[in-house]
Amino acid sequence: MVFNSVFLTVLQVVGTLLISAFVAYGFAAYEFRFKNFFFVIVLLIMSVPFEMLMLPLYVQINDMGLSDSYAAVLLPFLANAMTIFFFRQYLVGMPKEIIEAGRIDGATEYGIFFKLIMPIMKPSFAAMAILNGMNSWNNFLWPLLVLRSSDKYTLPIGLNTLVTPYGNNYDLLIVGSFFSVLPILVLFLCFQKYFIEGMTAGAVKG
Amino acid sequence: MKTKKSGKLAVKILMIVLMAVIGLMILLPFWAIFVGTFQEGNMLVRYGLNLSINLSEANLDNWVMLFTDSGDYFTWFSTVCSLLCCRLWEPC
Amino acid sequence: MKKFLYSRKAAPYVFILPFVVTFAVFWLVPLIKSGIMSTQKILPGQETFIGIDNFTRLFSDRIFLIAVGNSFKYMIFTLILLIPIPMILACLVNSKLVRGRFKNIFKASLFIPALTSVVVAGTIFRLMFGEMDTALMNQFIGLFGMEPVKWLKGAATGFVALLTLACWRWWGVNMMYFLSGLQSIPEDYYEAASIDGATTWQKFIKITVPQLKPTFVYVLTISIYGGLAMFNESYMLYQGNNSPNNIGLTIVGYLYRQGIEKNDMGYASAVGVVLLVIVLAINITQLVATGTFKKEDDK
Lengths: 206, 92, 299
Description:
The complex is a heterotrimer.
Chain A: H1 2-29, H2 35-45, H3 50-63, H4 70-74, H5 81-92, H6 97-104, H7 109-120, H8 122-138, H9 141-146, H10 155-161, E1 163-164, E2 167-168, H11 170-190, H12 192-204
Antiparallel strand pairs in A: 1-2
Chain B: H1 2-36, H2 41-47, H3 61-68, H4 72-89
Chain C: H1 2-6, H2 11-37, E1 40-43, E2 46-49, H3 53-59, H4 62-82, H5 84-94, H6 100-111, H7 118-128, H8 136-142, H9 155-183, H10 187-195, H11 200-211, H12 213-228, H13 232-237, H14 251-261, H15 265-289, H16 292-298
Antiparallel strand pairs in C: 1-2
Helix pairs in contact in C: 4-9, 4-12, 4-14, 5-9, 6-9, 9-12, 12-15, 14-15
């Protein structure tokens, strides 16, 4: 249960960051048709309650044969609108000469992103890694819907199953709950600055 | 001039007290659950969580159970620790 | 083919492709599906078009109206409790009267509850709001000579518990939003005002408040959204989706009950559509009223 949580958290953070950064670079570095159209969609997604899409998404995941799998938990959040938005804001301020210099050196468009852009994005990665990690670690409703077999449960759902109308296991629930806060607390105390940067990222540009 | 200075001091003390009280109130639930980990679960359901330790009934049974019955926690803890080490070591 | 993919013309589309695919598969399709499902009666393996029947049924559904009422009540109270107080706290933290280390401890302690999973928070609060006189909250009101209360059984007291939980978890986060807003105000503004002889109060009204407006609008938007879509907190506090007399039932809770527990997907989709319309309507009105759209046009 605990290993599942860690595994899912790591996978989700790495996947989301890579893909979102990739997309954000596309928005920040190029001029192309429909660019504004797609960017408005990014903003729109940020204001649609996920809970509203939950049911049809659940039906769809079942139709795709993905129910009770980690893919179902991860896929809908991989290209995360909030993260794309943050990276794009960060990259818009980057000097365009870096890209030009890369092109002169004969790097491909993708080579430029992986070799030149990713390294300068490091500080913003930290903030987003922590924000996404926190959300994934504490995610409750969606995994509760799609995961069925108890050996696949994540920590929050696992803890939740200890309390049922048929009998409670408060002994384990209390100590397990207290203990589940510790790792993220340690992370927070070490990387306070990045936590706060990540959380407040959306508000800065209003 | 003197009254202005002492006024400022009073405001400062007031602010510190206010912040201390709010901060402590926010942290109280964590203390409550920490104390709760030493009590028996069924007692907690019946009597609720509070801040005092009932020393005569306090024991480490829950903690022992956590580390013996659910071995998952060990995997988890070592994973988090190694993740943490990687992040600390990586030059930012 | 490979040459085309590596060309400068095609590259931007390749870059945003992952987003477009996820968006289409996991947002657009479900969104359309949700619209279609809301006009259908759905039984296993059989879907019949019934027009707006789901919606007419919804608006005469007493329990749905209770859920809408609860969500609105919760949203309004969270707006009252979760915006002004964190704003004041942020001003306290930002003032120069108090020293650095103490401030940092204060900031950290307010932020820590946001790190806890809703499962953990719900468990702690359920036990703190226990029924006996030994539970923390009953001990607390006992200090003022009040009798122990069965918090989670009554509508008003249950709401107090929910709101306490919300304040506990979100004060710190909202405070951080305001704090980052406050810190982005250039120091020169205040210095210029001091030279002109402005009092602290004047500086607050003339500089701080207008400069904080974008932050305020952002916090307002996410609070409206969060308040109306609240489900987890009530689910955890009441150990499931069934609270006594539905005092803790929210719109999303009703959607969950109809769609998952009763397997009436069509009806549940109608609930979802109503929720989306309400959230969008309120937020667009709010954004127009605060003039956020106008600013975008000027650019």
